[in-house]
Amino acid sequence: MNKHLLGLAVAGALSAYAMPSAQAQQGELVVYCTVQEEWCRPMVQAFEAKTGIKVSMTRKSSGETYAQIKAEAANPRGDVWWGGTGDPHLQAAEENLTEEYRSPMLARLQPWAIKQAEQSKFRTVGIYAGALGYGFNTKMLADKKIAEPKCWADLIKAEFKDEIQVADPNSSGTSYTMLATLVQLMGEDKAFAYLKALHKNINQYTKSGAAPARAAATGESMIGIVFQHDAVTQVASGAPLKVVSPCEGTGYEIGSMSLIKGAKNLDNAKKWYDWALTPEAQEIGEKAKAFQVPSNLSAKAPPGAPNLAETKLIDYDFAKYGSSAERSRLLKKWDAEVKTAPKN
To answer: What is the pTM of this model?
Structure first.
């Protein structure tokens, strides 16, 4: 080997030794994901491909993730919490479990997403929206010759005994949104009387908010109370499911994202945060058959996504029902008066 080639080889070897791989340079990121697994995975893959940052992802429901972040507060393991209903994100913000961050992407978002950030003192931000409702299995309904339910009031009828599935509001943001929605829609006393009547028709309280849609799609249950977009996902897969927006009106979620206080990979978490607010990232939802309405003004809503402008939405008080005191009070009351109530 001549001296020139030898010099190049030595320089190359020294360079390779001195400089770690691009991926190692970029570091790592721990994401707590609270949408469906089928959406979490392509988000992680797209971010890794774009940045070279290695992502470790854990998928749990909103309530479970909030509880985990609170339990880990002294030694945080997660960096960014992406997705899930806004109420537990707001509670985490109030309890100083999340970091203040004003993304340069803020100005490009829907007004409801910006309002979510402002209410939390910029400790969370809206990434999508979705209306509450339910889906019923049309084949099962026809077989039992039961009239189609169109309202919240229909779900407490005797013919639906043991035919309805909904999540536990302690673990599920979806179900807590239902609890808070009914309180705002009916008044607290009437809402809890309704929930006790509904309890008699519930065959299972699931951990995950989307699980009742899958149960209704497969015929495990006739009706699943869920966010409407979760029922639309099952329809898109060919399930005999009809999606209902209750006639009395309904609540909605602002799915949110937060940086975890004390995150060990904060810079990388901010990179995820900014990227997750881009149209490019938000349109991944459609490929994952997720039918939420994205928060970026330039992101296209998936075809088939529920039209919020045509839905009878209540004026949902996110500040009140996302507060730590109100959320804890309502959940404690639900545990005491509804969950343990007799079913006969």
So the answer is: 0.85
